[in-house]
Amino acid sequence: MDGEIKMTNHLGQILLLLGLLLFIYYVIKIRKLVFDRIIFIIGAVGGIFLVFFPQVSTTIANWMGIGRGTDLVFYLFIIVSLFYFVSVNAEIRNLRKQITELNRSQALAAPIRGKPLNKQSKIQS
Amino acid sequence: MSGKIEQPLHKRGKPQKYCVVVPAYNEGTIIRDVIKSILKYTHSLIVVDDGSNDLTAQRALKYPITVLRHPINMGQGAALQTGFAYALTLPVDFIVTFDADGQHAADEIPNLVAICHKGRYDVVLGSRFLAGGKAVSILPGRRLMLKLATLFTRWTTGLVLTDTHNGFRVFTKSAASQIQICQNGMAHASEILSQIAQLKLKYTEAPVTVHYTSYSRKKGQSFVNAINILWDIWTERLK
Known about the structure:
The structure holds two protein chains of two kinds.
Chain A (H helix, E strand, L loop, with lengths): L1 H29 L2 H20 L1 H11 L4 H41 L2 E2 L7 E2 L3
Antiparallel strand pairs in A: 1-2
Helix pairs in contact in A: 1-3, 1-4, 2-3, 2-4, 3-4
Chain B lengths: L17 E7 L6 H9 L5 E6 L5 H5 L5 E5 L5 H12 L6 E4 L11 H10 L4 E5 L6 E3 L3 H18 L11 E4 H6 L9 H11 L4 E5 L1 E3 L2 H6 L5 H11 L4
Parallel strand pairs in B: 1-2, 1-4, 2-3, 5-8, 6-9
Antiparallel strand pairs in B: 4-7, 5-7
């Protein structure tokens, strides 16, 4: 009996660890916006499902060696939050790149020539 | 960027044509002195005003130089890349980068350019810690910090340097055209070095003097900002 509990405990840990490793691999290798969105949709649908059938989370949790369904949902929440954090970060970085480009093209389109004698004038392009 | 570009630069009979790029953010109090000192050595000076909200641009425009203005503040890396993009359209052989806070000595510019020219280097990096270089009134904490940065650079890029975060550099035009600075913030210094390593550019260090003043210390990087730089470098690798 003791051994069995230990084994199921390991199962839960292994699955969560695999989830995290998969997350790291995903972030570094195959991230795409559309996959992000699919993952969010799955998460949302799964969440709604669990609202209606809360006992299901406990069943799955017990099967994985986790005591309460709430705990399982909490662990999943952490993993999903990581996804969200990284994807938002990537989006921000993207936006910043675009703003930089816009900023740069503005600056390059209107170089200003300073002059000690005459008034300032823009270089004709 | 088509049409007319700057006037011929070398009225002083300098053998190599170069222009100086100075990224500046809120340097209104000191920019005039820096410009005046540089104008003794070149007529081609580009100040990139990185969205300053003081009189940096207005004061810079009192001199016969070119000012590029970022509408909003993007960081020193972004300003340097903008300066490069403009400098590449000029009839020059070398592009010098120089800090706007007055910590570099403009009289060393011709020397660094000459080293780049004679040694046929792609890049010359100023070093305050090389024999012959000086770090005047440097604080011990800053010295330690910069030493750690050189170790970090050796570890990540394999480049063996004595000073990795010096804004005083000389690039040939072709080197400058190959380098793409994507790090808008201060991490661009590390980024430039890693690109030098990746592109296998021929580089050397040259001794320069860095004067620490209360002004430059205030404008310079704080200790905790090193964490920001590391963060920028590592997160850039995430997709």
